């Protein structure tokens, strides 16, 4: 049984039953899932969680899914790696990488989609759909394949070819839209009005949001039930960032960890950094931008949860950091060279952002810091193709010894 009791508007507090709903009917603000925390606290303990499966479903009591027979690709409990090599380079003594490259479709989106697709099934939809910068489309397509549901996934036409293969292999209906992600999103809002589909990040967005909380839960559990001093994570719509925070807050509310004192830092690519710009201007208003960056997966110019992400960054005593495309690529290379993790460019943004946050004295060397790597690199490998610099030899030892300068 789930402890979810309904939906509640984040702005005006209006309550709704659990249903597909994008925004509050009264004030058009995002709605979120509300729980009976009093009942939840009786049912949930560190032991009850630890005795669950090594997937996000170990936290099922904290999620809004009713079914016991969930559609599951095995998402969750990805490694939290102590990153001593990278930490040494950056000047951090207690750095960890949460490696969410290692999910079924190679990005953290599987967490959010696992929850949303199960809700879609519970609500009786037979088609699921999404607006995506690429990763979400792959995850929705894979979950729909497993669930035996029809999928329509909409992406901007400039999505990297490798990502389109990673989507199409699951045989969804792939729609490429001539325009930016924000154009795709606008189109999907109209499609969602006309067709009775479960749009993962539109009318199912409150449930989709809940899946990302599991990143916060896992990190705290993997750290021996404690919250880190600092979190560094990427932001596109800003939703993931707010949900890591919500996950930590809920564990504290359930008395599974001490009160949270984590400084939350979000990172964006300079060419698509409306949240960072608002943070730096000391403003609460996010001015939409037209994205211009190679970091396409987080290129959202008009972030739906930007305001809430900004509030988390400010209220937690964290901040917001942008990095340019060259810095992001350097970040990708540094992570791979030091920790053996091939992240996509969004991960490069996190590592390069972390480097700047340390250099500017915002994150200190003794703070327990977790950098969230949320998507894998191999599908977008064109952007680092210059790393291929082999030593060319004839197929004999003499040639190898000469060219490689290796004495016998
Ligand atoms: C790899 C990766 N990281 C982070 C994000 C950010 O997600 P959000 O829109 O929740 O801020 C995305 C979004 O598409 C993504 O693909
Ligand atoms: Zn409202």
What does this protein look like?
The protein has 408 residues and is an alpha/beta fold. It has a domain of 204 residues: Rossmann fold (3-Layer(aba) Sandwich), CATH 3.40.50. The protein is 38% helix and 15% strand. It is built from 14 helices and 13 strands. The strands form three sheets. It has a six-stranded mixed β-sheet with strand order 4-5-13-10-11-12, with helices on both faces. Strands 8-7-6-9 form a four-stranded parallel β-sheet. Helix 4 crosses helix 8 and helix 8 crosses helix 9. It binds pyridoxal-5'-phosphate (PLP) and zinc ion. The site of zinc ion has 8 residues, from loops.
The largest beta-sheet arranges its strands as 4-5-13-10-11-12
The helical percent reads 25-40%
Total helix count? 14
What ranges have pLDDT less than 50 throughout 5 or more consecutive residues? none
Q: Can you summarize the main beta sheet?
A: 6 strands, mixed
State the separation between the terminal residues, measured CA to CA: 68 Å
* Helix-strand topology string: EEEHHEHEHEHEHEHEHEHEHHEHHEH
Q: Regarding CATH, which class of the domain at 80-106 and 211-387?
A: Alpha Beta
Q: From the 3D structure, determine the CATH topology of the domain at 80-106 and 211-387.
A: Rossmann fold
């Amino acid at each position: 049984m789930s402890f979810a009791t309904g939906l509640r508007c984040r702005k005006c507090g209006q309550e709704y039953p659990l249903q597909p709903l994008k925004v509050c009917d009264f004030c058009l603000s995002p709605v979120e899932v509300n729980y009976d925390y009093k009942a939840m606290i009786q049912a949930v303990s560190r032991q009850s969680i630890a005795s669950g499966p090594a997937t996000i479903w170990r936290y099922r009591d904290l999620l809004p899914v009713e079914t016991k027979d969930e559609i599951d690709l095995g998402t969750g409990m990805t490694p939290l790696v102590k990153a001593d090599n990278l930490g040494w380079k950056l000047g951090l003594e207690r750095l960890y990488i949460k490696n969410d490259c290692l999910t079924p479709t190679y990005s953290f989106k599987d967490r959010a989609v696992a929850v949303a697709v199960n809700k879609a099934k519970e609500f009786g939809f037979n088609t699921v759909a999404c607006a995506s910068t690429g990763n979400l489309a792959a995850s929705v397509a894979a979950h729909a394949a497993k669930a035996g549901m029809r999928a329509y996934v909409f992406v901007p036409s400039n999505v990297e070819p490798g990502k389109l293969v990673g989507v199409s292999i699951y045989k969804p209906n792939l729609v490429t839209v001539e325009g930016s992600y924000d154009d795709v999103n606008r189109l999907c809002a109209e499609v969602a009005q006309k067709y009775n589909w479960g749009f993962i990040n539109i009318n199912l967005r409150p449930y989709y949001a809940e899946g990302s909380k599991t990143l916060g839960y896992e990190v705290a559990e993997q750290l021996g039930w404690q919250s880190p001093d600092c979190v560094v994570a990427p932001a596109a719509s800003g939703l993931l960032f707010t949900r890591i925070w919500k996950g930590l807050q809920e564990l504290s509310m359930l008395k599974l960890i001490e009160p949270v004192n984590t400084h939350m830092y979000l990172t964006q690519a300079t060419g698509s950094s409306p949240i960072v710009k608002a943070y730096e201007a000391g403003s609460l208003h996010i001015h939409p931008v037209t994205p211009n960056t190679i970091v396409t997966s987080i290129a959202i110019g008009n972030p739906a949860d930007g305001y809430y992400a900004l509030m988390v960054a400010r209220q937690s005593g964290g901040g917001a950091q942008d990095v340019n495309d060259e810095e992001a690529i350097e970040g990708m290379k540094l992570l791979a060279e030091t920790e053996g993790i091939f992240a996509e460019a969004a991960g490069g943004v996190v590592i390069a952002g972390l480097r700047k946050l340390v250099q500017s004295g915002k994150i200190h060397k003794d703070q327990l810091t977790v950098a969230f790597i949320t998507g894998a690199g191999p599908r977008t490998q064109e952007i680092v193709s210059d790393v291929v610099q082999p030593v060319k030899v004839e197929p004999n030892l003499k040639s190898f010894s000469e060219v490689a300068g290796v004495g016998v």
